[in-house]
Specification:
Order of helices and strands: HHHHHHHHHHHEHHE
Number of domains: 1
Strand content: under 5%
Oligomer: single chain
Largest sheet: 2 strands, antiparallel
Structural class: mainly alpha
Distance between the termini: 45 Å
Number of strands: 2
Low-confidence stretches: 5-11
Helix content: over 70%
Number of helices: 13
Mean pLDDT: 91
Shape: globular
Length: 336
């Protein structure tokens, strides 16, 4: 493996694709920033409720759980590889964006393939497959162009995304059947235990780094490029993913048991349903955002809490509101 620690600020072979992309396609930084949004977990927190509230509950819930699992796995893998981003180690690479976490594997590449890959397998249409493949490739290129990922980061992200997707597709029905036979309280407890196991695993990987420290050159060059500090040892993202997994799972159990609803309705009702639910979701996110900035364990705990509340809101709180206001009708879960 190439020794990044000895190459900070100098031309290294791994950065050649980044430099070539930036040199041969100047002036498209804003476009690439827009494309890279397709790999952001926050983007899918706006898309998935549309599916869950207005199209298909089963698909929406699966996408939400898959997003949580893929995000958590990515954070843990980043800590395991603890590799730099291009602009941290090479002054020739322009930083059109700043990222505080380690680079490998690319979260944008991994999450976009996981999400779009599952969508494609769900609908089984050639046109959707083609669009998804194009978007996945564009996301990967955009992250390289922006200077935040090496080609190896993108490829690694795709590999782990395929592994996660294939495992999820292989066991999702069996897991759903097994869980359906459990008491609602047991299912909620299992969701809590799963989220705790994610946090414990991340901490174990972090502890496994021992006395290893981020090379001073990485931090220095990253700051010179973006005026932003890096914080690659942070567990905030894994706390968010774990909290979302627990909240979404617990909310789904509550909804299926006490607030069954159907997604049918007129187009206008669906629009109002989605807009009202998203406005409250964004309010919850913004209201608790400042509290999560605390640098200690309190900040981590509040990050987990915010994500859990968001998960419960998406799968249970919003459906309850829709049923109470007449925006949705009560009824059994739709098959899927």
């Amino acid at each position: 493996m190439y020794d990044y620690a000895e190459s900070s600020g100098y031309m290294i072979p791994e950065a050649a694709p980044n430099i070539v992309l930036q040199a041969n396609a100047p002036g498209i930084g804003i476009f690439m920033l827009l494309v890279s949004v397709l790999g952001a977990p926050e983007f899918y927190l706006l898309v998935i409720p549309l599916v869950l509230w207005c199209y298909n509950k089963s698909l929406g819930l699966r996408l939400l759980l898959l997003l949580s699992i893929s995000t958590a796995a990515n954070v843990i893998l980043k800590l395991f590889f603890h590799a730099p981003r291009p602009y941290w180690v090479n002054a020739e690479v322009k930083a059109f964006s700043s990222e505080p976490t380690f680079g490998m594997p690319s979260a944008a590449a991994q999450i976009s393939l996981t999400f779009l890959g599952y969508i494609s397998t769900w609908f089984k249409k050639r046109s959707i497959w083609l669009v998804s493949i194009v978007l996945i490739i564009l996301v990967g290129i955009s992250r390289m162009y922006l200077g935040v990922h090496f080609l190896a980061d993108i490829l690694t992200g795709w590999i782990f995304a395929l592994i996660i997707l294939l495992v999820f597709l292989r066991y999702e029905k069996a897991a759903a059947l097994w869980l359906s036979q459990k008491h609602p309280g047991t299912r909620i407890l299992l969701a809590l235990l799963a989220s705790c196991m994610i946090i414990i695993l991340a901490q174990v990987v972090l502890d496994g780094l021992g006395t290893w420290q981020v090379p001073a050159g990485w931090s220095t060059l990253a700051f010179l490029q973006t005026n932003a500090t890096i914080d690659p040892f942070s567990l905030r993202d894994v706390m968010m993913a774990a909290g979302l997994l627990f909240g979404a799972s617990a909310g789904a159990v509550i909804s299926a048991t006490y607030i069954p609803y159907v997604v049918d309705g007129s187009r206008s009702r669906k629009v109002i349903r989605y807009l009202s639910g998203i406005i409250i979701l964004l309010f919850i996110w913004a209201a608790l955002s400042a509290l999560t900035k605390s640098p200690d364990l309190v900040g981590y705990g509040l990050t987990y809490l915010r994500a859990a509340v968001i998960g419960v809101w998406i799968t249970a709180g919003a459906p309850f509101l829709f049923c109470k206001t007449g925006l949705a009708k009560r009824g059994p879960d739709l098959p899927g």
